[in-house]
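Q: Could you fold this chain for me?
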Amino acid sequence: MTEQLSEQQSHLQNLLEQRATLIGEINELNSTAAAKRELVLRALGAIEYLQQIGVELPAPEPVEEVAPEGEAATEVPPTPETEALPAPVVEG
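A: Sure. Below is the predicted structure, expressed as structure tokens.
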């Protein structure tokens, strides 16, 4: 019975150490999350300020897709979302 008890005590000791480690990791994660939250709020404030005073980004330039050398450009088949529908026919 003493052997079982010491095995259980060892298991309990391991679990207590694991709990302490996990609590420490959770506290560290909470601290990191709070710091990141503060940075996001600062960035949002700066963004809002710049937008209010009229600062805008230039529109991105369209990028042409070029087929790699030796490969012919292939046409992408239309999907239901991009397929052009025929004009409706009015009967009468």
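A (continued): The CA atoms of residues 13 and 62 lie 62 Å apart.
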